[in-house]
Design brief:
Number of helices: 8
Helix content: 25-40%
Distance between the termini: 24 Å
Number of strands: 7
Radius of gyration: 20 Å
Oligomer: single chain
Strand content: 15-25%
CATH architecture of one domain: 3-Layer(aba) Sandwich
Order of helices and strands: HHEHHEEEEEHHEHH
CATH class of one domain: Alpha Beta
Shape: globular
Length: about 200
Amino acid sequence: MNNHDVAATWKYHNGTKHSPWSIRNNAHFLDWANRPPPFKIYPSIEPLRLSRDLPQTGVAGLSAISESVPSSSTNSLPDLKDLARLLYFSAGITKQREHPGGVVYFRAAACTGALYEIELYVVTSALTGLDAGVYHFNPADVALRLLRKGDFRGNLAQATAMEPAVAQAPATIICTGTYWRNAWKYRNEVLERQDREI
């Protein structure tokens, strides 16, 4: 499938969307005893705690990302506090609510009915206060965990056909999905419907 073949996308979309008929015809109850953990944990890796004191920069988010040429002519590298700010406002816990089934942690960006299947990893060069490496960001304790030490930006560049912006970026955030968090609640409707049709 190429990126311009939208038939598969529409098939998936139409097969997984809810309707009054699909909800009434195929009741689904959540198995709270089998609920996936809300955070990916690396228990044997020492956390590098990030600052929780994250003052506003004074630049609106849309203004920052729409700027084609940086307003500053200096070549500046992000430091650990800049990285902490970016990670927190991308996937950090902004509030939590308790209910009979447990605690729901709400994050900066909504995702999968508060299941937050997206995990963030950071691939960095050496930054002030941070060695070059591959890190996992855990929003539960606002910390990074070093998974691989060294400069792996070349690996990212190879995956992007040697895109210079990726090869030269001081830090790149990688988003991955933990699909069990999503499937637990929403199931794989397409496969289940196909099984019923066979």
